[in-house]
Write a structure and sequence with these properties.
187 residues, mainly beta, 3 helices, 9 strands
């Protein structure tokens, strides 16, 4: 059975918030549900936000940020769709290679642009659970009513795995890392 983060998150419903830790998932990508049996990931519900912004979306402010200016078209176009994360923020992304994605977080109220502590996300073949909508950005899982951001795959060409971040309103705080011991495997 192929692993789905939604399935993974569903296993953790009611789990207590862990402190930052690192565990290894053994096996090949994609991970299986069995690999998640002993893992206790943070949940969206533990990071619930009640902010329900529905006003006019501010234009992204690109001043003083070279990365924001470099990707201004992707940021401006993505921000137009309005909040999709943590109440009043919009995660926007653009490709940086065949399986690579870069992202920014835009405050829909102020237009302020934030960049995560990583620049590139390299993702692998994860399936979505039955009935789950296809994600906007394959290496990311997030919701508008939660400040939890889940990153799947490699971050800045470091070891693959799943990383859980909490959005503070200005930065992403790493909560937990689950690394894979093997990435390339043959049946």
């Amino acid at each position: 059975m192929r692993f789905s983060l939604s399935l993974f998150a569903a296993l953790a419903v009611g789990a207590t918030l862990p402190v930052w830790s690192s565990q290894a998932i053994t096996g090949c990508w994609p991970t299986t549900v069995a690999d998640a049996a002993s893992f206790n990931p943070p949940t969206y519900e533990q990071h619930h936000v009640t902010d329900n912004f529905d006003g006019s979306v501010a234009k992204p402010t690109l001043n003083g940020q070279p990365r924001a200016r470099q990707y201004r078209t992707a940021i401006r176009e993505g921000a137009k769709s309005g909040p999709n994360f943590a109440g009043h923020y919009t995660i926007v992304g653009w490709g940086c290679g065949a399986t690579c994605t870069s992202v920014a977080i835009v405050d829909a109220r102020t237009g302020e642009v934030f960049f995560p502590p990583f620049q590139e996300l390299v993702h692998y073949g994860f399936d979505v659970a039955p009935g789950e909508p296809e994600p906007d950005f394959w290496p990311l899982r997030f919701r508008r009513d939660s400040s939890l951001l889940v990153v799947i795959g490699e971050v800045d060409t470091k070891q693959g795995g799943i990383r859980y971040y909490h959005w503070t309103g200005h930065t992403l705080k790493l909560l937990k890392v689950v690394l894979t011991e093997k990435i390339n495997c043959t049946p």
